[in-house]
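Worked example 3. Consider a protein that binds adenosine-5'-triphosphate.
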Amino acid sequence: MSMLYGRLDDLREQSSRRLASALRQTGGTHQMRSERDTSVALYSDQLAQYSAVENGLCFGRLDFDDEGRFYIGRIGLFDEDREYEPLLMDWRAPAARPFYLATAAAPEGVKRRRHLRTRQRKVVGFDDEVLDITSVDPARRSEGLTGEATLLAAVNAARTGQMGDIVATIQAEQDRIIRTELNGVVVVQGGPGTGKTAVALHRAAYLLYTHRRQLAKRGVLVVGPNTTFLRYIGQVLPSLGETGVLLSTVGELFTGLVATGREAAGTAALKGRVQMADVVANAIRDRQEAPALVEIPFEQDTLKLNRQAITAARGRARRTRRPHNEARRTFVREIISTLANQAVSRLGRHLLDQADIDDIRRELREDENVRAAVERLWPTLTPQRLLEELYASPKRIARAASKLSPAERALLVRTPGAEWTPADVPLLDEAAELLGEDDTETKARAERRRRQAIDYAQGVLDILDLEDDADPDILMATDLVDAYRLAERHGAETYETAAERAAADRTWTFGHVIVDEAQELSAMAWRTLMRRCPSKSMTVVGDIAQTGDIAGASSWSEVLSPYVMERWKLTELTVNYRTPSEIMAVAADVLASVDPALVPPTSVRDSGFEPWARRVTSVEEALPGLVEREIPAVGDGKLAVIAPAASVPSVRTLVPDAADDLDAQVVVLGVTDAKGLEFDSVLVVDPAGILAESPRGASDLYVALTRATQRLGVVHTGELPEVLSGLREVTG
Ligand SMILES: Nc1ncnc2c1ncn2[C@@H]1O[C@H](COP(=O)(O)OP(=O)(O)OP(=O)(O)O)[C@@H](O)[C@H]1O
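Given these inputs, the predicted complex is written out as structure tokens:
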């Protein structure tokens, strides 16, 4: 072990030396500077990676029948002095696969698999498995687990509020999914706690390792349901030495806008329906107006546009099939030409030459009244303006959404200035596609960046000039020219990771997209995501049985077939690593009430703790004491109180130490925010309230019950819902 850490230290020192020397270089030709920037980025990345893999650098060893052996770890290390012989095998390398897949029945030449337990840089223990067919006991329940002792230690450990990586104990069914080929859509369906999120993140690391060249350029996007969840999983990829992945919610994908507004569940569900794509398209056409007559005062005269002329211009513009803001140019040209003809014939065509006619056109184009008229007939629109003005006007909604019922249309009405909601984002994105990019802000940003680069280049040249001790007055002008040129070249080659560039660009398309809790996404959100991934290289991870959002999915085929028809591959995870069997037995009844055909995943272990229910006369009175009593039981771990969304604020006041950030020991959450998370102990408050709160209430209760890794208690005031009759009632 010390040899491996010695090698890691050498590499770290080498990179910091190179980084320091790159940082010391200043000036030089533009090419030297851009090379320097690339080196700085490269060495900084290397240093970040070396620190990230410090913990648990090496976690396994494979001994082969032919007496060969090698160590497995987070990254590959090679012996420089001995022709780069491998010292440590990267877990993602094909040669490392038997560590995850070899079994006694199919040992792949492996004699022994060793899982190493390390603390800081020391080995503190190990578990060996001898892959010997005669040792297979067919009666053992856990047969088929890889590295069972290490796995059980990992799943039993107290939770920290941050998801950890599972690189040392990936199971065979998970490994197969992680290493599925890059192309095409892979769906990972699995019950709660089956490691879907873990698999998705390890797959991102695997794909970046295996297809580095292809993916580093376009980047990988991981989409999660909310920012709490993204924070929870945020450390996993860095701990695997990967930092260039963009983590985002769908609500954050519309660059330059924060969609934190809230709205009624029915409104959000409606906005998620695929029919909204037509509503947005109709809303844009509706803005291309053709009134019976428009009169435009121009100089001493009044020019007239009748409906026929407007419709003709509009037809031409529409036939370009360009987005609204781009087609506007054609519309303007047609209108100006109609108006110019009128003006010319009134003045007398024979009195004017071509230069006069050109002047008239120019004057018309610049005239305030003409501009205002054109703006009314074919306005320049941003997605924000389009939607805001649509929501503000029941009349506009009626025209754009004639296929919706009056009650549905009423759900869309909203006063201008209200905050954008997550369900608005796919609509804004749809609108942006149909309107054409309004890139004023991007252009302004690029211009600012260019100016900074010019200032920098100018600064460098100034220094060089001074060093040359030349006449500053003469050099000024040429320097300026050079500075522009240098800055431009320099700017084009500035090093930014794909993830950074992608985050600043709405139209960025990714090399691979991973969608977690994918069952929650609406049809409109899928359209947004599919646009970000034209190659349709995607990993879609979720559990149809856990769908809580009314706009969410009821079947993978329904979600995916509009984009890839039947060309997607279903993979399944069946073992639950989180929830112990005692809790799963209770959750299984709830699952059966969602759909009797659904099969719950099999728990990998028992906890020895029986979940309970307690009927109380008042939650206000009882809950603080129950929380107090539960805290010592979780020790260093975490406790979550999960309540119906509507009662979360009041429940929070009952648990004084509770916070909504996951670092706190006790958190109070609604089901939506608890999705994908886990805690050592969970208290579910008011299960009947959770069931009643949404048409998908049973799925929500199933999610709430399956968040616990050890202990579960249910607190209720009225009768315990029928689906929980398997719980033991306790008193006192
Ligand atoms: N092979 C493994 N080794 C160790 N721990 C594992 C393994 N697979 C999963 N786990 C652990 O099980 C827990 C559940 O995993 P994860 O959150 O990925 O499940 P999930 O399927 O996404 O669950 P849900 O659908 O409820 O969100 C995590 O703590 C994860 O680290």
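Take a moment to read the result before moving on. DSSP finds 30 helices and 22 strands in the chain. The radius of gyration is 32 Å.
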